């Protein structure tokens, strides 16, 4: 079974930009199983998989020699254009996606971060344009909601349905309170969007920042001190509670601490659809560097939620990632140069937040999780690519090596040892937070859209060759279950006879009457003696009800029987 | 009276130890329990006004001031032993065998019975105003029922009305309770509608009025609810005052939305109450309250633990070292939340309380287990009853049903039945959760909560062999429904002694309206605050002394925040590429690491422990 279009080919086969590629002798790893087969790529798609493929002549052949061939990574969390006080991160879409490709990531999902005062739509357009002209790999966009205002519903509808089919993102910033969260979640669910939450308790952080600045602590350690991990865990817990009440899926970005991860793991066991995304930084390093004597180094680690100063955190998060309690890895890549970070040299709250990680993501996960035996290669593919594609509705176009999928393929060398250092990384920043880390496992060849973009340590990319990948609402991976739970979870009252007993008369203006002790104690005592036999009274239990003629009654499952409610809770 | 005061207890009535009772092995066990009340600053032995006429003088009711309880097994939270107890002037004067007592003493035969400290019900609302109604059981009926059930002290909640100051509300409650209460009482104060000026009132209450616990609400949106920032502020103030922060933990915002949704769906009956307040909403609030309290380093007491989720969260937090206490109530330990779906509206409405009684039938079993293992510490009743007519105010709208269930009378018996009879706890644990722990947390220990020489003579003779069936027909309350109707309890109080007087004997109540005294409570209870104080000392954080950053600083646009972001102007500066090439060798730059700092001359540096070293912070977190 193969599809072969006999198209004339003019490309010289030594060109790295060849449209036709044959990867021979590789071991294909998908998230479910792995097998030996050759892959034939053409027109940016995977055309054939199998042995002894019949391919046209003049095809460039890559000998994989038994190495692993995996779907290109998907980095679900980047901020390549995040504005901060009029500046943007030093890695823009060009620099950032170059680094991504060098690390084996062939698609990014970037966050559109509207500045106060600009609408979601205009911001989206701006990001779209910037990425189209600069990006070297395929990309898609999340939209951050930093405030919930009147006209936002229409904008969201346009964003999701008509225009780009993209999934908005909601952040718990201090300005979004519960009620707005409840409202926002409800609305986004009705659109079929994926709700992402940046979970930190803004109220308490503000208080803590004040306190710590008052104590005279102005350095980057203040950032970690003012954001203890309990605050992250609390916000995660709250977001999950609200989402589970509304019965909508929720996705926690940047899981940085053990407690937050544990909350997610616990919640998943009880049924709510919760997904957690640790990032390269939380998987690969810890927050002890906030106490570094070198200000510039300490500031390079500033991101929020902060890296946990607990050095056992990366190990714990990798374990949860391996067992499936956390599902996706991002990078939260948003690097600022030291000069930019130095805006906050006298006040840690002014330090622009963001760390690097787009290039190191795949390698760090391999080194920390696969090389240590926590997860196998298939799970590696799942957490770096497949799960993200499923959650964000890109599957199986992305995230799988299968006939018909995009030709985003990485040949992975598990034995290659590489030392991460700022001297050789592709990012434009001076500090790499993983500086000096020796990592096992690195990409040998990276193929994006059917073209070799990275080989032997050399990048061959074109600015602007990345395409915008629109995503449809209601991803099945999330919403199938939600839809069923919606049906099952309907509430119904108890049909009972009208209460016809005595009713206490409330004083006309109870709220403003100052309670005089004498009047209050008397009514209880002077009342007629309580009627004792009410529970044997003659309430009509015949079953004839006002809404008997309502046909839908029979169709309803009784989902709230006595004693049964808790089961429903645990399911929905 | 003068005569009584002059007759001192016999000089050091050292009990003669007799070998035999297996609990009697501790030498000097009784002497250690002697208390010096002068140092505790508690008021002297109560003189409950001899003129006060007994409200309902019953046959067989004796008001003797001197009592000898013979042959009982004394049960404290740490040990049990066989001994006689001699009570005089409202105090326990002697404990031991073959006591030498004056003649004419009434003797109570306690053979084969347990002598336990009278119960302390830490949570009642006997005077709560809801929509201008006050609850059906006032202080008189409420405390009477308490005594009938073996509870000899209550701590009632003062809930100020809109427009009433905390102090004024406190005085109202004092007035009502002083004239009506039949047993000793103390008061918690609820803080609705927080504003800055309440701070002085809190101080006055703590310093002059003997109140050391305050409740904030996380539910009742737009009425009583506090925001997170307010809670943090209140907790900080309470910590400095040495008081205990209590929370009513439910997420009011979610409840508000759910209530609207349910009413729209046409659910108006009491089942709507429980559907609109699912247990996650309780658990979420408990989690949040614990987080905030931990940040403020304030001890937290969560009232009314009604669900598994909330209890589990609390247990986990304790495991991480947070100073937090949880109080399940009689209803959550013994009642069944499936009755919200009862076809009988009046019955269903009787169960309405919030957080609601969980419809999960395994909840009560789980909570009693946690109470037994110490994850939960105190059992209250949250007694706040309304008659069916009062509940019927909400007959067409469940949100209007006044909230509250009974439980003050049944509390001890239910806990005995569910925990001790089932083998989950022993009699000592029973005493701990019904009395001693409450006394410790709320700082009236060892005056209350212990059978010891010098303690108040609040005693209960508990008969573990007797059986009683709880029923609205026989209870001492003003309500038509008892939510524990039909529960059979193996273990009942046979004699209850309050302030040295027998108030219950052979099922007959003999109480005096207004005989209850207000028990002032001091701040900084050791049981709670010892740890908090130590942590306060440890919690200081220190910055890292480092050289001044002298590298390049990115120019921030002068008024970046004020300028309406014009798209064009924004893209231009983002040309991070146009910038000077980043300096790569900063991490090898010449920052001064010599250690000479601006604050070198401050002496305290050497004495300070570095509490926030790299990698060490998490340990501190897990300890505090």
UniProtKB/TrEMBL annotation, chain A:
Q: Give the record's keywords alphabetically.
A: Cytoplasm, Cytoskeleton, Nitration, Phosphoprotein
Q: Name one GO cellular component term.
A: perikaryon
Superkingdom, according to UniProt? Eukaryota
Localisation per UniProt entry: Cytoplasm, Cytoskeleton, Microtubule organizing center, Centrosome; Cytoplasm, Cytoskeleton, Spindle; Perikaryon
Membership in a protein family: Belongs to the metallo-dependent hydrolases superfamily. Hydantoinase/dihydropyrimidinase family.
Which parts of the sequence are annotated with region: Disordered? 510-572
Tell me what organism the protein belongs to: Strix occidentalis caurina
The name under which this protein is listed is: Dihydropyrimidinase-related protein 1
PANTHER family recorded for this chain?
Answer: DIHYDROPYRIMIDINASE-RELATED PROTEIN 1, HYDRANTOINASE/DIHYDROPYRIMIDINASE FAMILY MEMBER
Q: Give every Amidohydrolase-related domain span.
A: 68-453
According to its UniProt record, what is one Pfam family this protein matches? Answer: Amidohydro_1
Q: What does this protein do?
A: Necessary for signaling by class 3 semaphorins and subsequent remodeling of the cytoskeleton. Plays a role in axon guidance. During the axon guidance process, acts downstream of SEMA3A to promote FLNA dissociation from F-actin which results in the rearrangement of the actin cytoskeleton and the collapse of the growth cone. Involved in invasive growth and cell migration. May participate in cytokinesis.
Family annotation (CDD domains): D-HYD
Q: Name one GO molecular function term.
A: hydrolase activity, acting on carbon-nitrogen (but not peptide) bonds, in cyclic amides
Q: Where is the composition biased (Polar residues)?
A: 516-525, 534-543
Q: How does it assemble?
A: Homotetramer, and heterotetramer with DPYSL2, DPYSL3, DPYSL4 or DPYSL5. Interacts with PLXNA1. Interacts with FLNA (via calponin-homology (CH) domain 1 and filamin repeat 24); the interaction alters FLNA ternary structure and thus promotes FLNA dissociation from F-actin.
TrEMBL record, chain B:
Q: Where is this region: Disordered?
A: 1-21
Task: State its location(s).
Answer: Cytoplasm
Q: Name one GO cellular component term.
A: cytosol
Record keywords: Cytoplasm, Phosphoprotein
Do you know which InterPro entries this protein is assigned to?
Amidohydro-rel, Hydantoinase/dihydroPyrase, Metal-dep_hydrolase_composite, Metal_Hydrolase, Metallo-dep_Hydrolases_sf
Any one GO MF term held by the record is: hydrolase activity, acting on carbon-nitrogen (but not peptide) bonds, in cyclic amides
Pfam assignment, any one: Amidohydro_1
The domain of life for this entry's organism is Eukaryota
Q: Where is the Amidohydrolase-related domain?
A: 114-503
Query: Which family does this protein fall into?
Result: Belongs to the metallo-dependent hydrolases superfamily. Hydantoinase/dihydropyrimidinase family.
PANTHER family, per database record = DIHYDROPYRIMIDINASE-RELATED PROTEIN 4, HYDRANTOINASE/DIHYDROPYRIMIDINASE FAMILY MEMBER
According to the record's subunit comment, the protein's assembly and interactions are: Homotetramer, and heterotetramer with CRMP1, DPYSL2, DPYSL3 or DPYSL5. Interacts with PLEXA1. Interacts with FLNA.
Name the job this protein performs. Answer: Necessary for signaling by class 3 semaphorins and subsequent remodeling of the cytoskeleton. Plays a role in axon guidance, neuronal growth cone collapse and cell migration.
Q: What is this protein's name?
A: Dihydropyrimidinase-related protein 4
Question: What organism does the UniProt record list as the source?
Answer: Strix occidentalis caurina
